[in-house]
Design brief:
Layout: E1 6-9, H1 48-54, E2 63-66, E3 74-80, E4 84-91, E5 96-104, H2 110-116, E6 125-134, E7 142-149, E8 152-159
Parallel strand pairs: 1-3
Antiparallel strand pairs: 1-2, 3-4, 4-5, 5-6, 6-7, 7-8
Amino acid sequence: MKTKTIIIAISLFVSTTVLTMAQQSVIDETSPPSLAVKADNLACLKSMQCIQKENLFGRINLDIFRNGNGRFDGYTIEGSSKNEELFAQYDHRGDLIRSNVIQRNIPLSREIRNQLINEEFSSWNMIGNECRIKNFDRKSIEYKLILQREDEIRVVYFDYKGQNKNRLA
């Protein structure tokens, strides 16, 4: 039997500017992109009850759609903005089954910025970045940085602690 779901479509309206910076420049932390998924709300995003109780998505309109005969087996949250894509699936109790978040061209943590000014990367400019978060788990966070030096492009990865994942141990 086909699984019936309530789909909650969330349109994340975010007006941000694309952050393209040299790694030695200072990030203007006073106006970072407005993101729905943040380090301080990851735990709450694992439960529909917490999302509703804490009103995590603020004034965003939640449209509810029913499939088939109106019965449901779970919830799906999908949304995207200029800097963020979100997909999350919850069971009928509202507990997280799986999720994937992609954030692009966001301010980087101090730990990653410090890595970028070391000798290995000092001659490279960052032309873009991407952060992936699986299942709203802080330890799953992975950053992908696209670096350019003259005609060369290099992609490097960092974990949630800001450690370079490309180095050989």
